[in-house]
Structure formats: C-alpha cells, structure tokens
# Entry
Amino acid sequence: MTSRLVHALRLALLPLALLLAACAARPPQPDWQINAHDAAERATRAWLAGDSRVADQEWRRARAEVARTGSPALLARLELMRCAAQVASLEPGACPAFEALRGAAEPAERSYADYLAGRTAQVDVALLPPAQRAALANPAAIGAIEDPLARLVAAGAALQGNRAAPETLVVATDTASSQGWSRPLLAWLLLRAERAREVGDEALAQALLRRAALVQSRGKPAQTAPRAPG
# Structure
C-alpha cells in the first residue's frame, strides 16, 4: 500500500514531486526531506481514507519539516500536494494555503494550481504533467490515465473547470471505489445522486445513496440513506 501510494503521488503531481525526490541522486538525503516525505505520504493516505484528524496532524509535521529549509517555494510545493488530494475528493475552496505562497512558487506550480482550480485560461499546458495535459485537452482521456490518484485528480479538476461529462463522474466513482478511498468515493457518489435527481432518475439516485450509506456506515447496518445535497 505504501509504495503504491508514493508512486501515485508522484504521478499525480509530477513535476511537483521535487519536494520528495529532488536530492535523491545526491545521498545522503537530508533528514527534513525524508521526514516531510513520510509525513506527506501518511497525510494523503489518511485524507483519502477519511481520517481528517490524522491527515491534519501529518500535514502539520510535513510543513514543520519543510519550514526548516526556510524555502517558501518548497512549502508551496507541499501545499499543492494537499490541494490535489482535496480536489480529488471534491473538497470546496480555492486552496488558500498555496495561494498565500503563490508569489514564491515556480511557474509549473502556479500553472498546476490554476489547473486544479479550473482556471483553464491561465494554465500553461506545456508545464502540466503529461496525464493532466491530456485530460485538459480532452476529458474523455481521463479514464485512460493509468494511475488511480492522477485519474481522480484529473476528474476533480475537470469538474472544477465545468468540463466534466457524466462519464467523468462514473470514472471517478469507480476509481475511488476500487482503491477503497472512502472520502472521495462518498463525495462522488453524492454528487452523482444529486445529478441523477436533476434529470429525474430517482432509481439511480437511490442506488447511489445506498452505496453512500454503506461507505458512511463503515460496514455497520445503515438505518437511513443519506440525502443528496440540495
């Protein structure tokens, strides 16, 4: 699980994973880099599993380690990693922690942040990771992204930019489900239930809400199904 998640983070955020791997070819790695890497990995895993308390603790540890460098640019990269996980989970907001550091960020990070926020007109496509570049050009390409976290990030970014088709929501739901990522799965299920009701498909909405209730119950017998927003 650990090695797969590290791989997923790097693919999802390339070339932003410099924080984790910049000095790998020049051993020994500094302690702060190792500690930040491990904390960010644990934070992302906890976030996707729906454990906000652990995720917040680990992000604080990661920030503290990066702060030892005195580099706002490195801290901006770390915040962007958190932003990507939030976008994959349909977390509302404009990632204020990164925006506060935008002036110190490299062009690739600024472009990636705009992509995540759905500000496609401001994105320098050439600076995006290849998977996200293809997804921006054609949302239908999202389903072909090999890495699950990168796929989920692309789906969230497409939704932010009003580019997501109904199929995008299905791909995102299936991706989160197959990985057991309960936080994004619940968010995508509830969104799909809301969309189903908007088009009058109550049967589909109820089926999606039953799945959402199962996620929320963590396997305990569900008493009532959650209601779709709105």
Remarks:
- Residues 2-133 form one domain.
